[in-house]
Amino acid sequence: MITGAHAILYSADAEADRAFLRDLLDTRSVDAGGGWLIIGLPPAEVAVHPTDGQPEHELYLMCDDVDATVADLRARGVGVDPVTDQGWGRLTAIHLPGGGRLGLYEPRHPVATAPPRP
């Protein structure tokens, strides 16, 4: 039986990115040994998109109000890309201390992590 999902981000500064995500997500974290921090994620969902190219995987955080979330992140000194409208949602990216970017979006489609809206 599948009990959860484990996402992996690769980073040039893993320690800084772990601390950043721990503080950003404010969820339960555990030390898996030797200071190797594993951070709990909020409820998640998975989608499978078709591709003509090489299969790849992406990770996005979701929020209910991308403008308010971006304003909060910027007030905390976090770099964030400009928000773009993709039709299916409003998309941006959070700048990680290790140099990577983590997608963030406000979905406009039904989400699997919440009960259906009336």
UniProtKB/TrEMBL annotation:
VOC domain span: 1-107
MF terms in GO: dioxygenase activity
Domain of life per record: Bacteria
Keyword Cytoplasm in annotation: no
Alphabetized UniProt keyword annotations: Dioxygenase, Oxidoreductase
InterPro entries linked to this entry: Glyas_Bleomycin-R_OHBP_Dase (IPR029068), VOC_core (IPR037523)
Name the record gives this protein: Extradiol dioxygenase
